[in-house]
Design goal:
By secondary structure, the chain is α+β, with helices and mostly antiparallel strands. The protein is 26% helix and 25% strand.
Length: 745
């Protein structure tokens, strides 16, 4: 009896037809009877006192049903971990774009008209927009009351713009430097960048009679959102029902709940459903972009290239608030030391308040900033030693069972093999033309954990339904989950229905995060499918009067080959007298133990007359486990590489003096187009190691982590100048070339 393959085939997307046909419902599509439109008035100054707000003319405007200011909210604050952001500014504003007042009206136009009628008088104060300046004792305090905020990661001795300081240590850093023959120090700078999702933030909130609410929103973490809003208003979380909606892109930016909380207040005041949709100017001015950073790297090595000590210090510009970080810090910063055996490591992270747009999570948070610095530093160390960069890396790579720089043990890591594959496929060692350069970068990713529930229901008509509260942000979580269930039940993938559940139907779900969907949500689906299989076999054995191990699943039924008996799923469920329901639960918050490796080689050609950089080829090699769906797997790689190219070569939220975002529309903020992307080559090193279902491994974030460093190293190889700040532009290269001509850099 030949079975059709399920795992490892390019199964079609579950939601594909709904999306291309326009039937898919996003939060922006939700319309309720009597619904009002919410708009917010935003601060035009970066720092100052609100002396007076007069909203009387707005309240009297045609179509306006509710107007609120910070004084109406009694200082309610919200945040994922650190609760420091008011729903509306109360006494002071802390960045250009901060919400000062909100209105709900019959139409968007009426809401805009009402905003024009609100009068606000400010007393402008000095703003601090440089994180290094913000660290000085003389700097204006962005949050004088910071010591009283809930969720701080550690106590503060006194009010300070430095509100999070973390240190990850291994060995004795000073001893490591003392035993080094050479110490290399460099600084690197990375900019703010926006997630650039297609769909802006949107939500609809309808108040319930019990004081709770029905919510539709573009959030990837419904349970986290529910808990944040409930905590802000001292509600029982169960009173808030978060309904599933499709999400038009996330990349880490769709997890906050501030607009939902604000619409809850407007709905409570007006007694009507309230909808809010940010426009893209607001997204740039007041979204939650990737943190900019200043990174200092100090590396101690022996003359033979053995790395003895690494000290990395980050200064992350948090912007005006820390509310957007789920853990209060960037989880990848400490991992950027790289896949190297190093006895003495110190990674310090400073998160600093400034009067600029608050920052949050973006794909590979902390990883991309850190790997740009650390992998650029590896080439600079090799240069100082007179050593080939590849050989320096290979000499120091970890092997299975080695202790990582952060202290964990990597049971499985394929650093050297992955890099060698990238080198061979990219023809790294081949001769090259004038002003052509090749550079490499490597990175590792420890699998992340989480918690999720999934249900498999087999109806009396034989139908199979997979249910879960996970929200797919685009990569195809339900597609993979459906393949897993189909594999366990030995039925066609497209015969399984998919149902997205609201927050009343499931105990909890950690949401889509950190390349964990296949491991966490797929793990829940695997357990549900496995339990459903066991129950089908148990029931069929009971009805056929045989042992379960005498039966096999095939084509929507159970077969006993020797007795030549068969029962369909429908017959088994009807004989049982009710549907068969199996619950799968995955709960593992630990990281690893395996490491997903990536190695990339960028090839560039640089015009020394203009500094223009042409990225002519990018090769990416990945150490992976079992690939469940080749199309979605490759999609993650290609998307990550393109995002890495944007981060390395063009993307930047330019901040004007005084804290204003200068690139506040798509005409100024550039992301890669097909014309910017060279031929992409992917090399896969498969294995049967991985903590996900069927030994699968993480893939969602690795492909963008070393890209910027590989490009920087390639530019240095091509024309001999080192660019230490992102993005790497023609202007920076030309300036460096001219500086070299006029003397040492």
């Amino acid at each position: 009896m030949k079975e059709n393959p399920i795992i490892g085939i390019p199964a079609p997307r579950v939601e594909g037809e709904e999306k291309v046909s326009g039937r898919a419902i996003y939060a922006v599509d939700v319309v309720m009877p009597g619904m009002l439109w919410a708009k917010v008035l935003r601060s035009p100054i970066a720092h100052g006192r609100i002396k007076r707000i007069d909203a009387r003319r707005a309240i009297a405007a045609p179509g306006v049903k509710a107007v609120i200011t910070g004084e109406d909210l009694a200082g309610v604050k919200i945040g994922k971990k650190i609760i420091d952001m008011p729903l509306l500014a109360v006494d002071r504003v802390r960045f250009i774009g901060e919400k000062v007042a909100a209105v709900a009206a019959e139409t968007p136009e009426a809401a805009d008209e009402a905003l024009e009628r609100i009068e606000v008088e400010y007393e402008e104060w000095p703003a601090v927009c440089d994180p290094l300046e913000a660290l000085k004792p003389s700097a204006p305090l962005v949050h004088p009351e910071v010591m009283h905020y809930a969720g701080l990661l550690h106590p503060l001795e006194k009010p300070s713009n430095l509100f999070v300081h973390l240190a990850s240590k291994k060995g004795d850093i000073e001893d490591g430097f003392n035993h080094s023959d050479l110490i290399v120090e460099n600084s690197f700078i990375t900019p703010r960048v926006h997630q650039a999702y297609i769909e802006p933030h949107a939500c609809v909130v309808q108040l319930k009679e019990d004081g709770g609410a029905e919510v539709w929103c573009s959030s990837k973490s419904p349970f986290s959102l529910r808990d944040q809003v409930a905590r802000a208003f001292q509600l029982s979380p169960g009173k808030l029902v978060i309904h599933p909606s499709y999400i038009g892109g996330d990349f880490g930016g769709k997890g906050d709940s501030n607009d939902v909380a604000l619409c809850y207040v407007l709905s409570r005041k007006s007694g009507r459903p309230v909808k809010m949709v940010m426009d893209y100017r607001e997204e740039f001015l007041a979204g939650n972009p990737r943190h900019s950073s200043i990174i200092q790297c100090r590396t101690g090595v022996k003359r033979n290239g053995l790395v003895m000590a690494v000290h990395i210090r980050y200064v992350f510009d948090s912007g005006a608030y820390g509310a957007f970080r789920p853990q209060g810090f960037l989880v990848g910063a400490r991992d950027a030391v790289g896949p190297y055996r190093i006895s003495h490591v110190l990674v310090e992270e400073d998160y600093v308040y400034t009067n600029q747009v608050p920052c949050g999570y973006m794909r590979a948070p902390g990883h991309v900033q850190g790997h740009f610095a650390a992998e650029s530093q590896m080439d600079l160390v090799a240069e100082a030693l007179g050593m080939e960069p590849i050989e320096l890396r290979k000499l120091n790579f970890m092997r299975d069972g080695d202790e990582m720089p952060t202290g964990e043990t990597a049971t499985y890591i394929r650093a050297e093999e992955t890099l060698e594959k990238a080198l061979v496929e990219s023809h790294y060692r081949a001769s090259k033309g004038k002003n052509v350069g090749r550079g490499c970068g490597v990175a590792q990713w420890m699998s992340k954990g989480g918690e999720s529930y999934a249900f498999v229901t087999i109806g009396e008509d034989g139908s199979v339904t997979l249910s879960s509260a996970v929200l797919d942000v685009g990569p195809g979580a339900y597609t993979i989950m459906r393949q897993i269930v189909a594999e366990e039940l030995k039925i066609p993938v497209d015969s399984i229905k998919v149902e997205m559940l609201d927050t009343t139907k499931v105990r909890t779900d950690s949401g889509v995060r950190g390349s964990s969907s296949t491991r966490v949500h797929g793990g829940a689906a695997y357990e549900a499918g496995s339990k459903a299989k066991e129950e089908i076999l148990r029931l069929a054995a009971e009805f056929m009067r045989c042992a379960p191990d005498e039966l096999i699943l095939y084509d929507g039924g159970v077969i006993h080959g020797r007795m030549e008996k068969r029962m369909t799923f429908a017959e088994i469920a009807r004989a049982k007298g009710s549907p068969i329901v199996a619950e799968g639960h995955y709960a593992n918050m630990k990281e690893g133990p395996e490491s997903s490796m990536v190695a990339q080689v960028a090839e560039v050609e640089v015009d020394p007359e203009t500094g223009e950089i042409s990225l002519t080829q990018l090769t990416t090699a990945h150490s992976v486990g079992t690939i469940l769906n080749p199309i979605t797997h490759q999609g993650q790689i290609d998307g990550g590489v393109v995002m890495g190219v944007g981060y390395g070569m063009m993307e930047e939220m330019v901040m004007e003096e005084g804290g204003k975002v200068a690139t506040a529309h798509w005409g100024d903020y550039k992301i890669p187009t097909p014309m910017d992307i060279p031929p992409l080559k992917t090399v896969i090193l498969p294995s049967t190691t991985g903590s996900g279902p069927y030994h699968s491994m993480s893939i969602g974030e690795t492909a963008l982590m070393p890209t910027a460093a590989a490009i920087a190293n390639a530019v240095a190889d091509a024309v001999g100048v080192r660019i230490r700040s992102l993005p790497i532009t023609a202007e920076k290269v030309l300036r460096a070339l001219r500086s070299r001509e006029n003397g040492p850099l």
